[in-house]
Specification:
Blueprint: H1 3-10, E1 18-24, E2 27-33, E3 36-38, E4 47-53, H2 57-65, E5 67-72, H3 80-85, E6 101-102, E7 108-109, E8 115-126, E9 130-142, H4 154-157, H5 160-178
Antiparallel strand pairs: 1-2, 1-5, 3-4, 4-9, 5-8, 6-7, 8-9
The structure holds flavin mononucleotide.
Length: about 180
């Protein structure tokens, strides 16, 4: 296996950046996700597949509620990447300073996003470090029809020190995830 060759191909795959939110009673949280893909071609039965880290607080809430929302960020909404993606809701209340409204699933919906969908979990595939949730889309709205934020853009739009932090966090996670595969 030539890791560099494989990485060069995988690097060509770009993904959009979302805040995945969930709630259980008074507890609510959100985290950044990029592993989101459609899972049907049938418009009457919209489904998505979402990869969520085993250890995240947001996943803990999804496990209880079986529901979540995906808030698709616009290019200008990069400040929410460090806010929701660099620390855990176990350590800080991420919604203390961020306005939101409750969606039909009870999951927080963020203002000013490109759009959102609200989902109900149908099934989960345990892949070790991540759980892959197959979910029915119950509701959705295009809030502001503009360009979504992409993963590959982050190194250009985030301040340099945040890019350094993002890479450091990724490097730290790799051995931990490897032990779970
Ligand atoms: C650019 C970016 C993309 C990410 N993509 C994912 C992802 O697809 N799935 C995932 O579980 N975590 C992903 N993360 C990591 C989580 O957002 C991060 O672990 C977060 O702190 C978890 O928060 P929580 O414990 O409050 O739920 C990503 C982080 C960043 C910065």
């Amino acid at each position: 296996m030539d890791q560099a060759c494989i990485a060069a191909v995988l690097d060509k795959m770009d993904f959009k950046v979302f805040v995945l939110t969930a709630a259980d009673g008074d507890r609510r949280n959100g985290q950044i996700v990029s592993w989101v893909m459609p899972a049907t071609i049938v418009p009457q039965v919209p489904r998505l597949l979402v990869g969520v880290g085993r250890m995240t607080y947001t996943r803990e809430l999804i496990e209880v509620s079986r529901k979540f929302a995906l808030n698709l960020l616009g290019e200008d909404q990069w400040p929410w990447v460090p806010h929701f993606g660099f620390r855990s809701g176990r350590d800080v209340d991420k919604f203390a300073t961020v306005p939101y409204k409750d969606g039909v699933t009870g999951s927080p919906l963020l203002p000013g996003v490109v759009g959102y969908v609200e989902c109900q979990v149908r099934a989960a595939l345990d892949a070790g470090a991540h759980l892959f949730y197959l979910a029915d889309v119950l509701e959705g709205k295009l809030v502001s029809d503009r360009e979504p934020l992409r993963l590959h853009q982050l190194s250009e739009v985030l301040p340099p020190e945040e890019v350094v932090t993002m890479r450091r966090l990724l490097e730290q996670d790799i051995p931990r995830h490897m032990s779970l595969l």
